[in-house]
Input
Amino acid sequence: MNSFSKENELKELFYKKFKIKNLAMQKLPLIKYKVETAIDFQIEFDGKTYLFEVDTYNTAKVLFGQYLLLNNFIIDPEKYIYVPVHYNSKFNIIHSFNHLDYASKKLGCKIPFIIFDQDSIKRIIKKSKTIADFFELLHAHNTLETVKQNAETKIKHRLRKRKISIKTFKDYLPNSLTKE
Output
């Protein structure tokens, strides 16, 4: 499945569940510097604009660069939320979380972000009865603890498949997540 069809799959889920249509790519140019970035689609809800990026290549560096550009293009960052969705079940989203967290804490990026893998976002869409339910669940999953739990579950599953026993999951987390 190519990246375009994965983006369409997620858009189709939003349409089927919440009747939201016309979810189109949004280009954001910075003409003075001849630079532009684009997000796959956006949804406006409750005074916020959610910028969805369906990441099929699963590269934290690309999301990091896009996040930096968005933070330089957007004038009112408190009105936006960046929502990258990793669409490859083998990718550990903690890597991207760490990149975006660094940009937020060390480089002054102000747009909040909520990061998901495809399974988590699909589960939230299916659980939601309304679009309000969806955004409530979206925000409820916006914690480092949730990201760590999702990553832990995926890593444990992969290790079991390879018949590798684990004593403590902490041994398999990146150092930045194990520091107290």
User: Anything to note?
Assistant: Residues 3-178 form a domain with the Restriction Endonuclease fold (CATH 3.40.91).
